[in-house]
Amino acid sequence: MASHIKITKAPGTWSVRAGGAVLGESTNALELTEGDHDPVIYFPREDIAMAFLDQTDAKSLCPHKGEATYFSVVTKSRTLENAAWSYENPKPAVAEIKDHLAFLNMEEITVEQI
């Protein structure tokens, strides 16, 4: 793994909400820290209500993690474009995040330990 990336099991139970709806809760979330960036919580896909997410055509490339695929989060009042991402085929050094989703830190989305 790139020396500046660390993946650990996130302690306790984590939830993600958007537009007042609970998108998921997990006791198996992962915390990824990368350099001096804020930690990012990755939720196992099976713990997320995927009916609220629509995959988009957006992609990005991280030299350490691989290609990210993006999802829009659909709430009752609006669609939050490209607000979640996943590494479908991450680089071997970060293989733990495969089949996990992370969410943008934004006003309409809350990721918190409960």
Automatic annotation (TrEMBL):
A Pfam family annotated for this UniProt entry: NTP_transf_9
Start and end residues of each DUF427 domain: 15-105
Source domain of life: Bacteria
InterPro entries (alphabetical): DUF427, DUF427_sf
PANTHER family registered for this protein in UniProt: BLR5716 PROTEIN, DUF427 DOMAIN PROTEIN (AFU_ORTHOLOGUE AFUA_3G02220)
Descriptive protein name: DUF427 domain-containing protein
